Amino acid sequence: MFFQLRAPPGSSSSSKFVERPAFNKRETVQLGSLEVSPMGLGTWAWGNQLLWGYQPDMDGELQEVFNTVVAAGVNIFDTADSYGTGALNGRSEQLLGQFIREYPGSEKTRSNLHIATKFAAYPWRVTPGNIVAACKGSLRRTGLEQISLGQLHWSAAKYAPLQEWALWNGLADCYEQGLVAEVGVSNYGAKELRRVARDFEKRGVQLASAQVQYSLLSAGPAQSSIKAVADDLGIVLIAYSPLALGLLTGKYSTDNLPKGPRGSLFKQLLPGIAPLTAALAAVAASRRKTVSQVAINWCICKGTVPIPGAKDLAQARENLGALGWRLSSGEVAELDAAAARCSSSMVQNIFQTS
């Protein structure tokens, strides 16, 4: 469907703002009661100066990034109450709330946008009420009446089992009080995922999603087991870092590295992933797509909802090119085999449980 709308901020008054889905309606994913796009947008970088170089003067372009992906049909945005560094903590949630309010498209589209936020297992959050308070803080920052998907950012089971009990019950309380429409977890391993799902069921709450690091460089036995458990439980796997922090964009080499911590990591990993980078480049060339688009599409073909980030319009538009088509089973198998031949892989998040 097409909507002729006013121009978005920063565009010329003569241009038209058009909502044009980049994928077919039947490609949407059922996440609990929510109908979401096959790809979302991760907003870890929005407010993070240390790793991603965020500056407040980027906000105008970030609004355009938001407008562009929403107009293309993307309707799920992942954030967290901890996103942002220093005084900018919570900045990502604030920006998403602002961008929703200022989106120049139709009210129907705006009302179908879903914010998926995560509540950090900070050491001082030791009671269920602390998680309820955290959720209310996210609601204040976003300006929303309800969070579409409330998630536990990581598990405390390995080091503070009593706190873990409080986290579970606090999130269930959020659901029962109508503060969140659906509940999910992040960085939970296969065993802990089954356990938390059983405990939520005892409260009459169904787990809707599990979010883990998942890409061609992080799809080993542990992540495959999580995907199998998610499928068995009937919940959606949300794939964060589908481009492995940018390593799978095809933009970097040992002679061209990003600044900061990512540069040091990429320098270590790039020599060992040559089989995969070659395979990605070959598939991209045959498909007339970019390496990034192939890597994201692989995640979609694996039955996950990837949430690549975007700091500017060029990245947002490139990510959107991953929608509306699918790799063949042969191409997926070729990429799987290439990934298996790599001598390097992404280290899993230290907070991920077994």
From TrEMBL:
It holds the Pfam family Aldo_ket_red. CDD domains: AKR_AtPLR-like. Keywords: Oxidoreductase. It comes from the Eukaryota. Residues 38-338 form the NADP-dependent oxidoreductase domain. InterPro entries: Aldo-Keto_reductase (IPR050791), NAD(P)_OxRdtase_dom_sf (IPR036812), NADP_OxRdtase_dom (IPR023210). Transmembrane segments: none annotated. This is NADP-dependent oxidoreductase domain-containing protein. It comes from Tetradesmus obliquus (Green alga). The lineage of its organism: Eukaryota, Viridiplantae, Chlorophyta, core chlorophytes, Chlorophyceae.
